[in-house]
Amino acid sequence: SAVISQKPSRDICQRGTSLTIQCQVDSQVTMMFWYRQQPGQSLTLIATANQGSEATYESGFVIDKFPISRPNLTFSTLTVSNMSPEDSSIYLCSVETGRAEAFFGQGTRLTVV
Amino acid sequence: GEDVEQSLFLSVREGDSSVINCTYTDSSSTYLYWYKQEPGAGLQLLTYIFSNMDMKQDQRLTVLLNKKDKHLSLRIADTQTGDSAIYFCAETNQGGKLIFGQGTELSVKP
User: Fold this and answer.
1) Taking 90 as the threshold, does the pLDDT of residue B39 lie above it?
2) Backbone angles phi, psi at A107, to 5 degrees
3) Which residues contact B20 (CB under 8 A, 6 or more apart)?
4) Which of A39, A96, B35, B75 is 20 to 30 A from B105 (CA-CA)?
5) How far apart are CA B22 and CA B40, in angstroms?
6) From residue A100, how far is each of A13, A29, A96, A113, B94 by CA, in Å?
7) Which of B30, B33, B100 comes nearest A42 by C-beta?
8) Dihedral sign computed on CA atoms, order A23, B97, B53, B101
9) Three-class SS of residue B70?
């Protein structure tokens, strides 16, 4: 299994500001993923973070709004830029261990006011 | 695009079995997953099944897969109040990129 730590666990932010969420894994993984869970909704994939290359974004998500860094095989960050109340969600980091097991962090609960 | 569907609510009595159902549309799915999300928590991987399997059992959990009908189910035996949570079905054909159902809220009454 993989242990994933996310920081912060929750935050309340002013509209127009940016928040960077950190994701740390206890083992080296090739691919890391960022998901969004809007209130009362399911999870939607934002992007795939590959070490050494640009992140790959899903339809409806753009780099200017959700810049991602992946400096090494155990760490990634997701920034939510120029926030609005519609960005209030839980943001989750995920890794796939190569044995088909996909693990998630505990999530970052973001409220934009 | 690919879609995963689940019923939204299930209510059972403590000690009964719970069966949570899921249907999906992607015929090229390779792995299918069940996750549990308790209030305010992240997703806990309960179990997963490879698409060439029909069944997988892990203690109180039994996963059944009907690939022909693209139907997946999770059976929880002897359901306890601690099993109350939202259960998500998910599938992938591209390792790690999961498509989730909308979640089934399981309520266990004493």
Assistant:
1) no
2) 90, 155
3) B6, B7, B10, B34, B73, B74, B75, B76, B87, B89, B104, B106
4) A96
5) 23
6) 36, 12, 6, 38, 10
7) B100
8) positive
9) coil
Q: B15 Cβ partners below 8 Å, 6+ apart?
A: B78, B79
Beta strands A31-37 and A4-7 are unpaired
Q: Which residue of A has its CA nearest to B90?
A: A43
A41: nearest CA in chain B?
A: B102
B95·A100 Cβ contact <8 A: yes
The pLDDT of residue A100 is 79
Summarised one tens digit per residue, pLDDT across range A21-59 is: 999 999 999 889 999 999 988 999 999 998 888 899 999
Residue of A nearest to B99 (CA): A44
* DSSP string for A29-62: -SEEEEEEE-TT--EEEEEEEETTS--EEPTT--
CA-to-CA distance for A76 and A72, rounded, in angstroms? 8
